[in-house]
């Protein structure tokens, strides 16, 4: 599945910050948020060090294994956090530090997704979970293969879908009402693609 010397094949986008002008959404993309060298190193180390696991989801009484590997890290002192969860490693702490510096926000948890090849993806959903509130701030970082990130408005068919290629080392910030008005997906692809790692930093606050 994985060749560690693949990183030379990964291309970062052109450097720069793009603020999307789309309705009911606050969406900012920074390509090259991490340099190519940093991104190659994070990709290799996260691939190797992360406690990847399969994840089963129950939909209408049927259990499905999602087509990707995941891992969840959360500060142990956050109320309701799993005391036996994995500890943040150096790479995760470094990436979180950079994201927090850019956003001037604190994130106490991160979901990692590993898309092993084109058969892996994530279907249409919003990140509106009970434990992040209705308008969560989601800070998304990508390493490895470029995959498409698509958004569609939940209530208006007239508003066109948005398609954003998320490159090696990119940073996408979703805030405001993005998650209550839009859904997103990473479609599967028939192209022969290398693995992609995505990290979504979150502010988890459970109401106990
Ligand atoms: O892989 C991505 O870019 C998105 C992942 C995602 O939507 C999620 O984990 O909720
Ligand atoms: Fe999501």
TrEMBL record:
Pfam families reported in the protein's UniProt record: 2OG-FeII_Oxy_2
Any one GO molecular function term: dioxygenase activity
InterPro entries: AlkB-like, AlkB-like_sf, ALKBH3, Oxoglu/Fe-dep_dioxygenase_dom
Residues covered by the Fe2OG dioxygenase domain: 106-205
Keyword Oxidoreductase: yes
Coiled-coil features, chain-numbered ranges: none
PROSITE patterns: FE2OG_OXY (PS51471)
GO-annotated biological processes: DNA alkylation repair
Keywords from the UniProt entry: Dioxygenase, Oxidoreductase
Keyword Oxidoreductase on entry: yes
PANTHER family (UniProt xref): ALPHA-KETOGLUTARATE-DEPENDENT DIOXYGENASE ALKB HOMOLOG 3
Protein name: Alkylated DNA repair dioxygenase AlkB
Organism, as annotated: Flavobacterium saccharophilum
Upper taxonomic lineage: Bacteria, Pseudomonadati, Bacteroidota, Flavobacteriia, Flavobacteriales
